[in-house]
Design a protein that fits this description.
The chain is mainly α. About 55% of the residues lie in helices and about 10% in strands.
């Protein structure tokens, strides 16, 4: 005796697969320039609309596999400004561990800043005052 899945279970699987495919498109288009990002994402999701959930998922992962080539073609292989900065390390974000390094200004002055996040050393008097005064 075989039992078929309930309609609600099938609908749930369909929703999960569609959501996963859509999120993978968000991830794929993240590295594109702003003007291209929404247009390309909308085009790809429209192409996936008529596919079954499994086919949409396969299609999404196929597009993800070619996203590096697409991004290189649209940006001439150069990283985007927001991408090159990245996220600062956890130790810097929590202000628990910085890697202090000496730097020089254009006029010859010296200062210390974190080599990972760029924050000025507050113990040398060259840091900005806290924002909560």
């Amino acid at each position: 005796m075989s039992t078929s899945p309930s309609p609600s279970a099938v609908k749930h699987r369909h929703l999960v697969a569609t959501r996963l495919a859509t999120r993978s498109m968000d991830r794929t288009t993240r590295g594109l320039p702003d003007e291209e990002r929404s247009r390309h994402r909308d085009e790809v999701i429209a192409e996936m609309y008529s596919l079954s959930p499994l086919a949409a998922l396969r299609y999404a992962f196929g597009v993800m596999g070619t996203s590096a080539a697409m991004r290189a073609a649209l940006t001439d292989g150069e990283p985007l400004a927001e991408e090159s900065q990245g996220r600062s390390p956890l130790g810097c974000r929590t202000n628990l561990h910085h890697v202090w390094k000496g730097f020089s200004t254009e006029d010859g002055g010296r200062y210390r800043a974190c080599a990972r996040c760029g924050k000025d050393d507050p113990h040398l008097g060259n840091a900005q005052p806290p924002l909560f005064f």
